[in-house]
Amino acid sequence: MKAVQISDYGDRENLELREIEVPTPRVGEALVQLDYAGINFIDVYMRQGDYRNSSTYGTPLPFTLGMEGAGTIVDANGVQGISVGDHVAYCLSRGSYAEYAAVPAWKLVEIPTSMDPAVATVLMLQGCTAHYLSHSLFPIRAEQWCLVHAGAGGVGQLLIQLAKARGAKVITTVGSAGKAEIVKELGADHVVLYLEDDFYQVVQELTGGQGVHVVYDAVGADTIDRSIRSLRTRGTCVNYGGSSGLVENVRPLDLADAGSTFFTRPHLAHYMVTQAEIKRRAEDLFRWVAEGALKVRIDSIFPLAEATAAHERIEQRKTMGKLLLRATDS
Ligand SMILES: NC(=O)c1ccc[n+]([C@@H]2O[C@H](COP(=O)([O-])OP(=O)(O)OC[C@H]3O[C@@H](n4cnc5c(N)ncnc54)[C@H](OP(=O)(O)O)[C@@H]3O)[C@@H](O)[C@H]2O)c1
């Protein structure tokens, strides 16, 4: 089968389309013939080697990129409760930039018959992230203020919609005027073009100097200090990524000075620990899309052979929504 692999950590030129053996599912795994692989920013970190020592998302070389996909089970491998022919989606199992993937069966969710597998793919890693951030980590309540960075990004667009659905007041930052239009359509209350305006100042003005209850910050290095200062007393800073660079240091005294604030650096994996938890999040998201309450925007779909161009697009901040790889026409 075809698969996009790396043998060395580094830049996107290291991505190589190779012919490799179809994986043999181990005990508890099923073999999935993929329609789509989702591209996520975590793939960039993994390619660069940022997660080489991670106990949650280790990346032993060589490996096939990709942590998310959707397709059809072609070998159920004796696992109870699943069958050949089931249409499924999943995330947090490495190796989806390929035509086939062996996936732990407990991570698979069945896709509703009416749902496009491309949409189901989006809802797994980015959708479940937006879900746990807004419903579990900091279950945002009506009338609370939140600040969502990179609001036009894959996670950002979904997070804005989920926060609005819970009645929150959403301030969001974006990198361009085109992205501002998208987040306004999604219901964001205030949009900051953060390469032009200081989001900290805007937050102060909008909240009467109080600050926000929660900041969802996956931009990281460029924004984290001002994100913490944008909180109100006892507010929560959720640093869930580092698109501009991973955050290396946060001083406890800075958290205290900002108003005895809370800081957390979560992994999605710790909010998807059981099959029931995965199903609960995915089924909520599937239902909201079916009801028209949640919109999914696909930025573009590349063939496997163009994974390098796809990485270039996400790294150069050009995406406005989800990037996918189509596994069937590489
Ligand atoms: N911890 C978790 O559980 C978890 C789970 C999923 C994703 N994440 C993280 O969430 C973030 C968003 O992921 P995503 O896949 O949805 O990506 P994305 O938001 O679609 O793309 C990244 C966005 O970050 C912004 N950005 C700011 N500075 C940047 C820089 N120097 N280089 C590149 N982009 C920059 C850009 O938006 P603007 O142009 O608007 O600035 C860009 O479009 C990533 O950091 C990812 O690692 C974390």
Question: Averaging pLDDT over every residue, what do you get?
Answer: 97
**At the fourth CATH level, what is the homologous superfamily of the largest domain?**
Medium-chain alcohol dehydrogenases, catalytic domain
- Low-confidence blocks of residues: none
Task: Write out the distinct hetero groups bound to the structure.
Answer: NADP nicotinamide-adenine-dinucleotide phosphate
Structural class: alpha/beta
Shape assignment? globular
Helix amount, in percent?
25-40%
CA-based gyration radius = 20 Å
Largest sheet: 7 strands, mixed
Structural commentary:
By secondary structure, the protein is of the alpha/beta class. The chain has 2 domains: 2-125 and 273-326, Medium-chain alcohol dehydrogenases, catalytic domain (Quinone Oxidoreductase, Chain A, domain 1); 142-265, 3-Layer(aba) Sandwich (Rossmann fold), CATH 3.40.50.720. The chain contains 9 helices and 16 strands. It has helices at 41-48, 117-137, 154-165, 177-185, 199-206, 224-229, 252-257, 275-291, 307-315; strands at residues 2-6, 16-19, 29-39, 63-64, 68-75, 87-91, 100-104, 109-110, 145-148, 169-174, 190-193, 212-217, 231-239, 262-264, 298-303, 322-326. Strands 3, 5, 6, 7, 8, 15 and 16 form a 7-stranded mixed β-sheet that branches. Strand 15, helix 9 and strand 16 form a beta-alpha-beta unit. The longest helix is centred in the middle third of the chain and has 21 residues, at 117-137. It is globular, with a radius of gyration of 20 Å. The model has no long low-confidence stretch (mean pLDDT 97). Bound molecules: NADP nicotinamide-adenine-dinucleotide phosphate (NAP).
